[in-house]
Design brief:
There is one protein chain. The protein is of the alpha+beta class. It has 13 helices and nine strands. It has a four-stranded antiparallel β-sheet with strand order 1-2-3-4, sandwiched between helices. A hairpin with a 5-residue loop joins strand 2 and strand 3.
């Protein structure tokens, strides 16, 4: 449903209850009695949705909601299709002013259903509309032209951040809604010509985008220097003279300009984004330090294991590679000589001890001589292979 808010009802604080599953979050959003008719899926899976709404000053806006698939991570919300300034928006049009979605921990502690969170954010933007600098989405521009054909986008910028809905609005009961992609509007039952509203195709969004912001991106949000000042043309000479001569009057005049308000809001938005990013980094500093220490320990263990592996690999190569024939013959000669000396020692020991157990002597002596002759045969065979 494409609607205007008619009250300042706020979402009550959630009571203590078990953690909410992802399915419950989606159901609360997609089946929300107010949000459901104007909400549609814009991704190939069930992670991204757009909700169209109208502010109290008559502008149509789109809130794009990203619902992480893990169910534990905080959802993110962006104002889609526009460039605007607002205390709740950063330079990339991400909603940063709603505390329950400021971090994963805040989202878990809030124990708030997604439908209530989205409604609270939209309700806030309805009552305190952002200052629209540019409508970048073609379909949203067409929708705005359908709602207010003769209205200039700059008209929206005269709305201050604390401006309440006009009294006549609540009594008029004007409403607009979207059904199956078509927009209908009217205050007395009459409907305007249906305008087909096709949301742009799903764009792959990085969950953690690049935090760098180019100068061109900042400059695109800063209002251009006006070439003329129609309000000054309508002033009487005494008023102009006062602005020129009185610094206080000049400062008051400048501070009340819409473009100055826009630049101030942009400055505050950037400052808040920087503070939030710095605070988040500081909160994770201890965890990062622990991870660094753990990584350093693992790096040392890896170095030790690599050295041990290289040592074992060298041993493996020495054991598995074909031996050098000359080296093998040399080693067999040494071993043959040792076996010959061993058999001679067995015989000398038996003679000197005048042993009586001939069978034991013969067994040991024959074993030693067998080893000797085996090695001698191997040497001869290796030499034959070389010839």
């Amino acid at each position: 449903m494409f609607w205007k808010s008619t009250s300042s009802t706020t979402v009550p604080s959630p009571s203590r209850r078990p953690s909410i599953s992802r399915d419950e979050h989606l159901k609360s959003y997609l089946d929300h009695p107010v949000l459901k008719p104007s909400t549609r899926k814009v991704s190939n899976n069930d992670t991204m949705y757009d909700t169209v709404f109208q502010t109290t000053n008559g502008f149509a806006l789109i809130l794009r909601v990203y619902v992480p698939s893990d169910g534990r991570t905080s959802p993110t919300m962006h104002m889609h299709g526009v460039r605007a300034s607002h205390l709740w928006l950063d330079i990339r049009m991400k909603v940063i002013g709603y505390s329950p979605v400021s971090s994963d921990q805040a989202w878990r502690n809030a124990n708030l259903k997604l439908g209530d969170a989205v409604y609270a954010v939209i309700h806030h933007f309805q009552l305190t509309p952002p200052s629209i600098q540019e409508i970048t989405d073609q379909n949203l521009r067409k929708l705005q032209q359908t709602l207010s054909p003769s209205r200039d986008i700059r008209d929206n910028n005269h709305t201050t951040q604390a401006r309440p809905p006009p009294p006549s609005y609540e009594s008029s009961q004007q409403s607009a809604f979207v059904v199956n992609g078509r927009v209908h509007a009217g205050s007395n039952g009459d409907s305007v010509q249906a305008q087909e509203y096709n949301l742009e195709q799903f764009e792959r969004v990085n969950r953690r985008p690049d935090c760098s912001v180019s100068d061109a991106e900042v400059n695109s949000l800063i209002p251009p220097i006006p070439s003329s000042f129609p309000e000054l043309d309508d002033m009487a000479m005494p008023e102009l003279q006062k602005i020129v001569e009185d610094p206080v009057a000049l400062k008051s005049y400048v501070q009340n300009r819409t473009r100055v308000d826009t630049v101030r809001e942009l400055k505050e938005s950037i400052e808040k984004s920087n503070v939030d990013a710095a605070t988040a980094n500081l909160e994770k500093q201890d965890k990062v330090n622990l991870l660094c220490d753990e990584v350093e320990g693992l790096r040392k263990q890896l170095g030790e294991k690599v050295e041990r592996y290289q040592e074992l690999d060298r041993e493996r190569n020495a054991l598995t590679q074909p031996p050098d024939v000359d080296d093998a013959i040399r080693r067999l000669n040494v071993a043959k000589k040792n076996a010959d000396n061993e058999s001679e020692e067995i015989g000398d020991d038996w003679v000197e001890s005048r042993g009586s157990d001939v069978s034991d002597f013969v067994r040991k002596f024959m074993e030693s001589r067998l080893v000797y002759h085996t090695r001698a045969a191997k040497i001869e065979r290796l030499r034959n292979t070389m010839s």
